[in-house]
Amino acid sequence: MRRKVFDTLVSAGGLVVVVVLLVAGGLLMWAQSFTNSSVHNQLAPQDIYFPTKAGITPAQRSYLLQYAGQQVLTGEQANAYAQKIASDVSGLPYGAVYAKVSEASRANPKNAALKAEVTIAFEGTTLRGLLLEAYAFSIFGAIAFWAGIASFILAAIMLVLVGLGFYHARKTPIDAEILSVQKQ
Questions:
Q1: CB-CB contact of 72 with 50 (8 Å)
Q2: Does the pTM exceed 0.85?
């Protein structure tokens, strides 16, 4: 096969790879934007606010102080608030594990305190789970963002290589072969 033809074919294939990487990068950036706006749009109407500095316990300072008084609108904030809920309910009987509290309440149906614990455990663990889901979704968005950046960088590198391939094809003599067999 002629070297010029080979260089042109490989460079054209590289051009296809550049287009694929650019499309992938665009889709990944769209995915990141979608996840961020979706997390925000799901959290905003819930009207959840962090406690002010005065309401943050010493054990919660490391992860709540930076958000004091703010509304929960991002995945990172949702994660911090979920940690706050876990901290708040950890001292409750049965560790506020719904299955355990519910089982204890069913075994002792006249115990009003256990019935109240069932409600607290259910609401606390449900809200915590929903907040952690928002956090997980935001992590997917962050991964999509960095994958999109990587895709654009790879597309740029590949475009340079494609340009060098076409340049080499142009400079290669028309009769040059890829594997030339030398006659003895």
A1: yes
A2: no
Task: For residue 160, give both structure tokens.
Answer: 């340079």
Q: What is the pLDDT of residues 98-145, one digit of tens each?
A: 888 888 889 988 988 888 888 888 888 899 999 999 999 999 999 999
Contacts of 142 (CB under 8 A, 6+ apart): 32
Please, what's the b/e burial string for 91-116 (b: 16 or more CB within 10 A of its CB; e: otherwise)?
A: eeebebebeebbeebeeeeeeeebee
Find where tokens 């003599």 sit.
Answer: 173
CA distances from 27 to 17, 20, 75, 150, 156 (A): 15, 11, 21, 13, 17
* Adjacent-strand bridge partners of 177: 2
Give exposure, 37-75, as e/b (b: 16+ Cβ within 10 Å). eebeeebeeeebebeeeeebeeebeebbeebeeeebbbb
Give one word for 147, left, alpha or beta, with left for phi > 0 and alpha for psi -120 to 50.
alpha
